[in-house]
Specification:
357 residues; alpha/beta; GMP Synthetase, Chain A, domain 3; Rossmann fold; 2 domains; eight-stranded mixed beta sheet; 22% strand; binds adenosine-5'-diphosphate
Length: 357
């Protein structure tokens, strides 16, 4: 029996709510073994007292089960997060800060949809890349994406941002590609882990997640919300200090009802709706004629009823889907394409809208 075997056992101890273990999260600071007596030192930053309790109990079970171990002691060093959610914002931006790590994030906007499969993540990733290009040209800090779509966290794949995020000073560092910093539940939940969490659990995890990512200085954080307009989405938009929201819809006129429910959700929490983006609007044939595969009018009807602009209509384009699958968004791979031009135009409207306030 040696300390390496103890460390191997600690790799089976997951951080509560995550599929990652405490070793890879960088929480284990020391492991000692003396005559069958194991001592494990943990350093953790959390405001939730249940988290260290759970971890200590799990360590005792995992290490205690090893042959030759007679006693397991866990030494916990717990520090409080620097700022709790909802605490007044020290930087004086007038916003309620979600956490100290969001202090240098100037604006946060949400991308939402009434249901899945309308292209919300595709729009998020392409808009983020378009915003990044515009901000880079203007010499401003960049863009981040917080992928909260835990039911289908596809942002890392679409942005070609793979690998595990690093941990530094107990904070998660976002993974960067094309200049866009990304943090996704997809980095933490393994591909084969079914997400069976329900409302309150999701909330706790996302809060923890939001508080522990070191975004650095960002001009805009784009938040990819889980599809739908239920309680989980509502509490999420209450957790993150949002400056605006964009609704993604498809052209079917029936899509209007779901989008309206989404709008009501943002109204409740006083987050201004910036506009509607209609996706999969038409398919352009080589001769230039347009086919409305998924109907017509949904985006305009939604925008009119919400009294916000229809910011753009994104065509159906195989290159968009390929870009998603290859991890190179169309805004990067083919900036002259019709779709990329629409994303750039929407990004410009978002910047103008945010700068007005
Ligand atoms: P959501 O986030 O709303 O669930 P996704 O962004 O994951 O939807 O998109 C679902 C699928 O549709 C993806 O495979 C994506 O590549 C594809 N897709 C999205 N928008 C378009 C488009 N305009 N043209 C072609 N394929 C698209």
């Amino acid at each position: 029996m040696d300390t390496e075997q103890i460390k191997a056992a600690l790799k089976t101890v997951k951080f509560p709510g995550f599929s990652r273990d405490i070793i890879s999260f960088g929480l284990v600071r020391e492991v000692q073994l003396n005559d069958g007596n194991a001592l494990v030192g943990i350093e953790i930053t959390t405001g939730d007292e249940q988290v260290p309790e759970q971890i200590a109990a799990d360590i005792k079970t995992a290490v205690g089960a090893l042959e030759g171990i007679t006693d397991v002691k866990v030494r916990m060093e717990i520090s409080q997060p620097k700022q709790q959610p909802g605490a007044p914002d020290a930087a004086g931006t007038g916003k309620q800060a979600a956490s100290a790590t969001m202090q240098k994030v100037k604006y946060a906007i949400a991308v939402a949809s009434g249901k899945g499969g309308v292209g919300k993540s595709t729009v998020t990733v392409n808009l983020a890349c378009a915003l990044q290009r515009l901000l880079e040209d203007a010499g401003k800090p960049g863009v981040g994406i917080m992928d909260c779509d835990i039911y289908g966290p596809s942002v890392p794949l679409m942005l070609g941002a793979s690998g595990r995020p690093e941990i530094e000073n107990d904070l998660i560092l976002p993974v960067q590609n094309f200049g866009v910093r990304t943090m996704s539940m997809g980095f933490l939940v393994d591909d084969d882990t079914p997400v069976v969490w329900r409302g309150p659990m999701i909330m706790k995890t996302i809060q923890q997640f939001a508080q522990n990512v070191n975004w650095g200085e960002l001009e805009i954080l784009v938040v990819d919300l889980p599809p739908g307009t239920g309680d989980a989405q509502l509490s999420l938009v209450q957790t993150i200090p949002l400056d605006g929201a964009v609704i993604v819809t498809t052209p079917q006129p029936a899509a209007f009802n779901v989008a309206r429910r989404g709008a009501r959700m943002f109204e409740k929490v006083n987050v201004p709706l910036m506009g509607v983006v209609e996706n999969m609007s038409y398919l352009e044939a080589p001769d230039g004629t347009r086919q409305a595969l998924f109907g017509e009018g949904g985006g305009q009807i939604t925008a009119d009823s919400l009294k916000v602009p229809l910011m753009g209509q994104i065509p159906i384009d195989v290159a968009i889907r390929e870009g998603c699958d290859n991890g190179i968004p169309i805004v990067i791979s083919d900036p002259d394409s019709a779709a990329a031009q629409v994303f750039m135009a929407v990004a410009k409207q978002i910047l103008e809208d945010l700068c007005k306030n």
